[in-house]
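PT: before anyone asks, these are the final sequences, not the draft ones from last week. 822 residues across everything. Please model them as a single complex and drop the result in this thread when it's through.
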Amino acid sequence: MAAHSVSPLAPSQYPELPAIAGLQLAAGHTGMRYKGRNDVVLMAFDRGTTAAGLFTRSTMPGAPVEWCRKILPRGTARALVVNAGIANVFTGKAGQQAVETTADGAARALGCRSNEVYLASTGVIGQILPAEKIVAQLPKLKAALSGTSWMDAARAIMTTDTFPKLATATCEIDGKTVTINGICKGSGMIAPDMATMLAFIATDAKLPANTLQALLKSANNQSFNCLTVDGDTSTSDTVLLFATGKAGNTPYEKATDRRLADFRRALVQVMAELAQLIARDGEGAQKLVTIRVTGAKNDTSARIIARAIANSPLVKTAIAGADANWGRIVMAVGKTAEPADRDRLVIRIGGKPVTARGMVRPDHDEAFATKHFRGRDVRIDVDVAVGKGAATVWTCDLTHGYIDINADYRS
Amino acid sequence: MAAHSVSPLAPSQYPELPAIAGLQLAAGHTGMRYKGRNDVVLMAFDRGTTAAGLFTRSTMPGAPVEWCRKILPRGTARALVVNAGIANVFTGKAGQQAVETTADGAARALGCRSNEVYLASTGVIGQILPAEKIVAQLPKLKAALSGTSWMDAARAIMTTDTFPKLATATCEIDGKTVTINGICKGSGMIAPDMATMLAFIATDAKLPANTLQALLKSANNQSFNCLTVDGDTSTSDTVLLFATGKAGNTPYEKATDRRLADFRRALVQVMAELAQLIARDGEGAQKLVTIRVTGAKNDTSARIIARAIANSPLVKTAIAGADANWGRIVMAVGKTAEPADRDRLVIRIGGKPVTARGMVRPDHDEAFATKHFRGRDVRIDVDVAVGKGAATVWTCDLTHGYIDINADYRS
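LR: through. Structure below.
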């Protein structure tokens, strides 16, 4: 795989993630695909850690996704093993054996059960994962475990990503300070539906597994579900949330409990930040595009419309070329067949209204719109004027870079 | 708009379309947008001509689409006026006035009613159509009418098309020879759903309007509905079929009448040929891609899966780069969430099976697949192993050319 230069949308600095009590991690190198960089991460959790997870809706899920789905009902976690380079997807029985070998190896190394070991893999589809190469690294990884290796871990899970993705926040439950850390990877094949590319979030909050799952699902709808790079939903999308319980708060059972309000806010903050980092590292991305649809029949309809705009190759190339061709936004709204009132539709580019009464406004300032499209942060608002549904989607433009990266990913 | 070099997939020669009794046509120049080429077509039909039409399902249809929908129930046609350069879409009341002005002008010129004048426009969205420029050309167009100007007409309706698109076939009804001619245009914003980009088909068969409509709808499902370039459904998709009735056959009422079998075959042949010409002229296309899905729950499910493969930017860029990355085909099947059996899925590239038992076959010949992807005609077959549904979709690869064309279409 060719190395690609760092996205111009990369953050100018990365946050330093604090340690989470009850969690240690380390990154290492298997050599299964990438040379001269780490490609495997081990996370170890203290006893008492609960787990929540969301996964791709693809009917062609990878073996690690099936594994995680199988062990998730148990609700506890002692380890997470992630590798980059080979996704272990569409690998038949050999793929199942590879996840079992990896989970067994980690369970032996850490002295836990294999059904407390979560797994995720990312990279090429269809190649068998050489699990023995991961297992061989586990002793070294165990010896290197530390509370603060978040940046190393974020780097080790990258594939076509051009920068590591990390976010952190603190909040309070019962007056106790709680930390939430997250890392993720993703750049292409990004159109998470009920899940996302690989994202791993951890907190020292004490929360029952069922509560954690409900909190994750809700936060996901306001973060990774608002993201698309290319409309191609991955076979490996996985978001996992681990709670070590060391913060000492009361473990409230109800996800909607008002005493968890600050935690919910902080969780959305971390996850939304991670999701936006993926859009900023979309393959070939030169611009971060935020699309807000309002006035839809309901929120689901608003999301369908926002995604149609975000995934339209004609809209994405217009943004790439700084051609404020708003007619293509009209097209994308129309093609969904979702309820929309053409003659009251209002499109705003960079905050300025472009349309009124089913046509362009007489005062439309094309020079302003073009200038806005030339910037790094593009904002498109569309009111479809039939109801109260709203949704936001983050995406990026479609450039020659996407084609360069994807016309020759495997070589 | 920059001129783009002719698609490498253009046919090596164009068919010569014979005259259709009862139909005359001419092309002319309004100068509304393009310099040095024709941009308007007038087709005139003798009394007794019936009409059928299918239109975009977009909720943002252009004014000409609304006009045609309004007059179609009458079922008769005396004229068709088509212009290229400005689509007259999202133009509010001014757009409605433009279609009325054009239809009234043509009705005056030809001595018919304005509700017998069909209209279609293609080009930029959001600009007002200067109808007076079309009306000013009508006398000249009327004087130039001839039975054989099909190539001129096909050229005059082009926008980003790099070659004109024509097809013809003959068939028999009651032992009478019947001719079917068709022209179309389309290159980007191509993902017709119940309709297509602009396509105009004419025959000398004698058929009642209702029968004609049923025949068109059925043939459309086997032709334009099998086509996608970029998944972006146009606001202007229009396919019109006119029957002058001069062939002297019995006007059978039932579209499924076995005495119309040869006509149905010929109609599908002409329309499928036109649809494939659009795929061959997809913006930036270097390869024609035929995707056949079998074994789906039903035909609708098969089409959803085939379209997901055809519209996947990752699949399209892999084909562009001649990277036989079949894992992306697995991804595209999976992302639809349509029923599919991962562990019995069979993908064939260029006819050779690649997968079995949920993984790559031991005898997979990657060199063969790569060589096949290097060719101009790419064939992908996918059996999803759950039922008897089948569908075929034609598309093209996604190349730097698409981005070049669309990042700066308007300038």
